[in-house]
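Quick one, probably user error.
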């Protein structure tokens, strides 16, 4: 290699030195260092308490707004034993010669400690380490440095330690930042570290903080012990095998900010995101991320409830199972009818399901390829209405009933017709027509706005939500099948596969004791989603919103099962009166101490419970830029 002529004989790089040297020069005064951009001084820790606690170094190495260094060397065993022998003789003489009882007690205690150390070194292989801790304090002004120095020395004294600024030694102290312990021993000031047994030094381990460090995680916040939370919803390990989550937090607790940060992080990672937004607060974030918003009040398009979507695949081939998808579709349409007519009995439900099944055959829909037709080849609700009317009447216009119908059969048909007529007449914009919400598979991020829909009759709201959930299940399956195929063929790793995230905000509008059918549907969705790299996030203000005190046992167990299937529980501040309910729903996942802390969590504070993993208490952290992007929430 040709040597640069501008490099000196020691072969250091002058260009690098130009970049890293103190800009404006440096001057060492007796107590302070003056640089072109401010002032600096170094505090030397020279005295330690006799007894220390476990992890004692943590408090020394986490001083705020300073650079802390710790240099460690190994003491010569022979020299240490000589000094110990001298000290033992000194303490023994002190014990016999000191007339003060307190002095004798102190001498005896010191003698016993030194004797134990000598035995450890001689018989147990104990090694003595020389430890030197320094604090580099800086500020724009001399007064600022003096003030900070005073604060740090006082704090050290409150912890039982003593520190000082070494006069006329600041140049050597400053150079210690760039030299190890052995090099420092050659300095002219000959400062040596504090002799500490290696066992004591090891017990001072300062890095015992809780943390979460997912390989593909993004920063979510900082734990209460100072560790980082790098979280990825779609991390898969032997303990974390699914991607569902629930988030609970009262108003102002920081729930909305956490939700938006999860959306932002997953958008950055390229995941497919679908949001069910009850109040419309995700709109600005979705648009900023280049996403699309769709109102489910009919103004932005329609989802044909009679369009048969792929929802079931073969476990072996991952190909769409048309027969089972058709059966699932019949159950879905029947369930929608139950939403639209809550008073219908089981006989009427079965009658409706039979009518729908026969209707598809009447329309020549082949069950073997029922999910493969074009959008406009599927029948509509008004066509279904005419078919059912033809089953009841010989003359639809004159409404002349057929003679071969029993009274009960006729009444069931009349009830069904009455309800379907109401849907076609009053809510045709939502349910009667071909699907016009299309190409959503091509969009990475979509928010479905429910603000206007939430003002509709509860029957209509539930039916439309059920319809959109079925559409999302289909989209998740379509995308997931492609990703799974690429994964199985070795074309993609788990990390490279695009994931499908569904976030349901204000989930209590959908998950509650009055809507058990949706609870069951989402539970089934949860079980299947992980197979296709899909995950659901449910968010609500209070756990009592989804499981009130007067809930019956069967409904409670189904809601509890829904939450049990969530791998992650983000629990933010909750009222005192729901702690017992949290304990019951998340049985065995939260300690009594954690439960007691929940009502007192501050804004942004969160307990993250991960199945098969330790719980983590952390604070959600966002930048000013993120807050501006989120526009609201707390």
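Nope, works fine. Designed sequence:
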């Amino acid at each position: 290699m040709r040597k640069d002529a501008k490099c000196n004989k020691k072969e250091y790089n002058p260009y690098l030195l130009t970049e890293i040297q103190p800009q404006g020069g440096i001057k060492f005064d007796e107590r302070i260092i003056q640089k072109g951009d401010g002032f600096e001084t170094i505090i030397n820790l020279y005295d330690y308490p006799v007894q220390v606690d476990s992890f004692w170094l943590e408090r020394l190495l986490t001083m705020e707004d300073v650079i802390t260094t710790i240099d460690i060397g190994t003491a010569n065993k022979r020299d240490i034993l000589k000094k110990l022998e001298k000290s033992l003789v000194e303490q023994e003489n002190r014990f016999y010669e000191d007339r003060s009882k307190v002095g004798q007690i102190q001498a005896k205690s010191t003698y016993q400690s030194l004797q134990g150390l000598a035995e450890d070194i001689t018989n147990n292989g104990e090694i003595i380490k020389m430890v030197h801790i320094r604090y580099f304090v800086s500020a724009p002004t001399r007064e600022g440095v003096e003030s900070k120095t005073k604060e740090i020395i006082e704090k050290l004294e409150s912890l039982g330690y003593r520190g000082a600024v070494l006069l006329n030694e600041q140049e050597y102290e400053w150079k210690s930042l760039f030299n190890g312990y052995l090099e420092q021993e050659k300095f002219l000031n000959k400062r040596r570290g504090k002799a500490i047994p290696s066992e004591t030094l090891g017990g001072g381990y300062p890095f015992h903080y809780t943390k979460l460090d997912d390989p593909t995680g993004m920063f979510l916040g900082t734990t209460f012990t100072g560790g980082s939370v790098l979280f990825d919803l779609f991390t898969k390990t032997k303990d974390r095998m699914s991607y569902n989550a629930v988030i609970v937090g009262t108003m102002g607790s920081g729930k909305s900010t956490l939700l938006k940060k999860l959306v932002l992080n997953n958008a950055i990672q390229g995941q497919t995101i679908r949001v069910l937004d009850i109040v419309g607060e995700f709109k600005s974030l979705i648009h900023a991320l280049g996403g699309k918003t769709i109102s489910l009040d009919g103004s932005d398009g329609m989802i044909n409830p009679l369009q048969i979507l792929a929802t079931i695949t073969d476990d072996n081939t991952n190909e769409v199972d048309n027969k089972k998808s058709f059966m699932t579709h019949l159950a879905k349409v029947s369930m929608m009818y139950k939403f639209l007519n809550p008073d219908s009995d089981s006989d009427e439900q079965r009658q409706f399901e039979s009518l729908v099944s026969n209707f598809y055959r009447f329309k020549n829909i082949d069950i073997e390829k029922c999910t493969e037709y074009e959008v406009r080849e599927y029948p509509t609700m008004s066509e279904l209405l005419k078919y059912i009317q033809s089953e009841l009447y010989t003359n639809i216009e004159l409404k002349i009933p057929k003679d071969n119908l029993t009274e009960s059969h006729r009444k069931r048909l009349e009830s069904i017709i009455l309800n379907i007529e109401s849907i076609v007449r009053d809510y045709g914009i939502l349910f009667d027509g071909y699907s016009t919400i299309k190409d959503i598979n091509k969009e990475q991020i979509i928010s479905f706005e429910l603000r206007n829909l939430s003002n509709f009759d509860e029957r209509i709201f539930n039916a439309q939500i059920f319809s959109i959930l079925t559409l999302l299940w289909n989209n998740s399956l379509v995308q997931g099948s492609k990703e799974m195929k690429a994964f199985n063929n070795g074309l993609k790793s788990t990390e490279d596969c695009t994931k499908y995230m569904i976030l349901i905000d204000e989930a209590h509008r959908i998950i509650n004791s009055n809507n058990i059918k949706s609870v069951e549907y989402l539970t089934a969705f949860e079980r299947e989603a992980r197979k296709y790299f899909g995950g659901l996030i449910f968010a609500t203000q209070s756990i009592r919103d989804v499981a009130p005190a007067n809930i019956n046992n069967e409904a409670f167990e189904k809601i509890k099962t829904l939450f049990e299937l969530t791998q992650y529980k983000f629990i933010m501040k909750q009222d005192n009166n729901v702690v017992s309910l949290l304990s019951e729903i998340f049985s065995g996942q939260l300690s009594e101490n954690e439960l007691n802390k929940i009502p007192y969590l501050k804004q942004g504070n969160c307990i993250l419970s991960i199945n098969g993993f330790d719980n983590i208490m952390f604070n959600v952290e966002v930048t000013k830029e993120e807050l501006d992007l989120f526009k609201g929430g707390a």
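Residues 76-123 form one domain.
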